[in-house]
Amino acid sequence: MSVVLGGRLHSVLLRTACTNQLTATRNAHFTFYPETPDPSAGETSKVTLLQSVTDAMDIALTKDPTACVFGEDVAFGGVFRCTVGLREKFGKERVFNTPLCEQGIAGFGIGMAVAGATAIAEIQFADYIFPAFDQLVNEAAKYRYRSGNLFDCGSLTVRATWGAVGHGALYHSQSPESYFAHTPGLKIVIPRSPSKAKGLLLSCIRDKNPCIFFEPKILYRSAVEQVPVKDYELPLGKADVIVEGDDVTLIGWGTQVHVLREVAELAQQKLGVSCEVIDLVSIIPWDRETLFNSVIKTGRCIVSHEAPYTGGFGAELAAAIQENCFLNLEAPVQRVCGHDTPFPHIFEPFYLPDKWRCLEAIKKVTS
To answer: For 231, which of 12, 110, 333, 353 is 20 to 30 Å away at the CA?
Structure first.
């Protein structure tokens, strides 16, 4: 009973919070940097990250008759409105609500994928993905391996909102990517923009491995840019060098990429330091070649993420960079992360790895 009441309560609260999201993002800790699409991509449309996610699912449902979208409240458009119009267009057999049971959502998705369908499951908040943890790490991730490649659930994609939102506090702000990164057999992707979200989500849906697609909810409405209208995919496991530089490599993903872009500008203006900004894009698999080449060039590296410092994925990157780029490093790899506390409410500005904390780290590695 407490699980059901808790689930209903967080749905009601976040429906209210969602209406205030635009107000919250005006005071956000970052500035969104829209990107200009390649002219060869063809016709574009100005959309939010939220709308790009909806468009990706629309395309998947249109082109794949076995594809289904399911989760809490998705038939009504979802708490964040990512599935608006899909039930009306594709019917209640393909877009439907589930009980308030994340373990059941994941287990149902695994079964559907094993049976040959394309399963697109929504976990309303990444903070509530933990009841599904056993299904994802012990079943979905290992299904192919334990059957000797006779069976798999590779056509399963799990979407979940992720990260700070400005008012989410401890149960609606977490970044749990490192928990899943420890599990061979899963792919984990976090987009930074509408154009990336559409292409990466379509890649996840069509990938032959189970994928977890974390969506930065603070970007749902605050991130707006021109996105190609056509069906397209973007590579998983390939990092993007967004800003080239010579002195310090800055690595992030999701919302934090935009923080680091602003930090790079501040470092150039205030310190005369040239920073190379890299969006990791995929947590698993991650692009070793791009990161190592950058650090070998700059000799200094800072990894930044919203998740807590201890055990965050930045630790894995820092260790790998130390192992492979040690002779090229001019300073130890630095991590600028969330603190080792539950995610706070009114103290969120002090918890987040904002541009000023990142700038201090640049001063440290260049002094």
So the answer is: 110
Question: 25-82 pLDDT, tens per residue?
Answer: 556 899 999 999 889 999 999 999 999 999 999 999 999 999 999 999 999 999 999 9
Pairing of β 68-71 and β 119-123: parallel
- Taken in order 136, 142, 144, 147, is the CA torsion positive or negative? negative
Indicate the pTM of the whole model.
0.93
Tokens coding 136: 């994802």
pLDDT tens per residue, range 268-306? 999 999 999 999 999 999 999 999 999 999 999 999 999
- Residue 137 CA to residue 183 CA, distance in Å, equals 6
Does 262 qualify as catalytic in the annotation?
Answer: no
For 175, phi then psi, to 5°, come to -125, 90
Six-digit token pair at 54? 């909806």
User: What CA–CA distance (Å, rounded) separates 176 from 133?
Assistant: 11
Please name which of 199, 191, 187, 197 lies closest in space to residue 156, comparing C-alpha atoms. Answer: 187
Point out the catalytic residue in the list 102, 177, 225, 306. Answer: 102
The question of whether 177 is a catalytic residue gets the answer no
d(CA 344, CA 170): 6
CA distance 31 to 158: 28
Residue where the block lists tokens 């894995």:
316
| Alpha carbons 65 and 364: distance in angstroms, whole number | 55
Given 10, 29, 167, 172, the catalytic residue: 172
What is the per-residue DSSP string for 170-229?
Answer: GGS----HHHHHTSTT-EEE--SSHHHHHHHHHHHHHSSS-EEEEEETTHHHH-EEEEES
